[in-house]
Amino acid sequence: MRGAVIHAPGDVRFETLDDPKILHPTDAIIRTVATCVCGSDLWPYRGAEPVDEPHPMGHEYVGIVEEVGSEVTHVKPGRFVVGSFATSDNTCAHCRNGWQSSCLNREFMSTCQADYVRIPNAHGTLVATDEHPDAELVPSLLAVSDVMGTGWYAAVAAEVTPGSTAVVVGDGAVGLCGVIAAKELGAERIIAMSRHESRQKLALEFGATDIVGERGEDGVARIKDLTGGIGADSVLECVGTAESMRQALHSARPGGNVGFVGVPHDVAIDGQELFFSHVGLRGGPAPVRAYLPDLIDRVLAGRIDPGKVFDLALPLDQVAEGYRAMDERRAVKALLKP
Ligand SMILES: [Zn+2]
């Protein structure tokens, strides 16, 4: 089979690789229907994370089950499945508590930009649809495997409630999905912080009520203006930089909550400031598996359309162009099809 391999920052190649095999009775092999490039894939691509040796890439996927190990009984070959970027057995104490992305047997997916993928913990990770979905629903189901699930978690972690005011920091794919989540969870006012016209448009389409283009303390001042000087009930931090985290913490009202899902890079939090702010803070890799059945239903019912975050579709063999386009901000998110 063929798949993407990163050799060094800026150097992603599409290469012939060994076909994946069942290694454990809990594995499945899927044939990729669609995969994509994640904002977090850009960290090594831009040299912000080291690339010590060439390795495969990709952690978002939907596919058709090809083969299952002997302990995988609830998904059968031929079924269309959606999974999470973090695999989980769905039976351990953390899974039962709803924190599948902290599963005691967790393995992070990292080989999905390829024709075929081995899914560890397949029994607890994969959710099959009743039927093969229509082609136009595939992008939204793919989004559910990471960005939509992560945006949902950001809203849950920020404790968005009906009638509340939510601020979304970050207008990448996760931030835009965070707008969808805040709307679905009933936020009355959704303030999207974005400077890019096309992303502002999509945020408004997804349910944002206000757009703030300012950043840093100017952005915080605008949020205060818009909330009568109080601050927001819920803030979804979807970037992961020191500036975005500061902006998020300063935008929440006393008693408000920040859900942070951007993987932090050089983020330091001042303990005294957090103490006196009365702001609640929860983040981490999203327990996407917990939300999969619900989010798949919302997509299939036509309630949400997170697939709109893909503004570039390429054949899988042009994966390097997907990275380039996202790195150069010519695309928000690139979808790839074998
Ligand atoms: Zn578990």
From TrEMBL:
* Cofactor(s) for this UniProt protein: Zn(2+)
Q: Which InterPro entries match?
A: ADH-like_C, ADH-like_N, ADH_Zn_CS, ER, GroES-like_sf, NAD(P)-bd_dom_sf
The Enoyl reductase (ER) domain covers 7-336
Q: Does the keyword Oxidoreductase apply?
A: yes
Q: Which GO terms describe its molecular function?
A: oxidoreductase activity; zinc ion binding
* Signal peptide per UniProt: none
Q: Does the keyword Metal-binding feature in the UniProt annotation? A: yes
Q: Which domain of life is it from?
A: Bacteria
Q: Which UniProt keywords apply?
A: Metal-binding, Oxidoreductase, Zinc
Query: Where does the sequence pass through the membrane?
Result: none
Give the similarity note: Belongs to the zinc-containing alcohol dehydrogenase family.
Protein name per Swiss-Prot or TrEMBL:
IMP dehydrogenase
